Predict the 3D structure of the following.
Amino acid sequence: MRKLAAGNWKMNGTSDSLSEVVTLLAALPSPACDMLLCPPATLLARMAQLAQGTALQVGGQDCHAHAAGAHTGDISAAMLVDAGASHVIVGHSERRTDHHETDAQVLAKAAAAQVAGLVAVVCIGETEAQRDAGSTLDVIGAQIAGSVPEGSTAANLVLAYEPVWAIGTGRTPTIAEIAEVHAFVRARLTARIGAQAAGVRLLYGGSVKPSNAAEIFAVPHVDGALVGGASLKAVDFGAIVKALSLA
Ligand code: PEP
């Protein structure tokens, strides 16, 4: 399976930041893995124009579950497609926390994205308290059952395991902990969507940086990364893409 390096710019970036994309594409015109950047909505169409005809794909960071209507401030999956997106992140822990998104809402967003022709990048992950309580696998299992649309395929689903306590903190699980969760995720996804699960890219996310990328990418069932902070700079994201290309 072709691996995926995905970057989430979160609420960072203005027009000037697009120069990072130009630098990235100049350094890595044809990497041996897929490359995705999810900028804020204000930059999406311009980034998609820059990415046209290149190895870079562009995605949204969230979408509404409905196709259109009276939902001030929200963006539908079809609008993301119209702006040039191929993917959308749904259920990021910051949205689950800041906007109190439930598994059912995340599932509805993922399904809407897939209907619109987008790849849904569904995020799951335990909090620190849940890990300390020994309930990591229970939490992950429930999130897979609750957030992943039943008819998902290898072509329209990417699943990102992001321990909440590892996001933006510089802390990461041990290699053994990542291996345990990713093997579990593959098994639970197979129970949920069947044989298609074998081809779904499972990303690890949470403080991935150039210095730890190679050892994380060597873990079985880690098919790429979802990268926050280190995706903002072409030099760092490029180094992660290179590490994944070699994995
Ligand atoms: C993220 O936001 O999905 C993420 C993994 O962030 P960071 O890489 O900064 O920890």
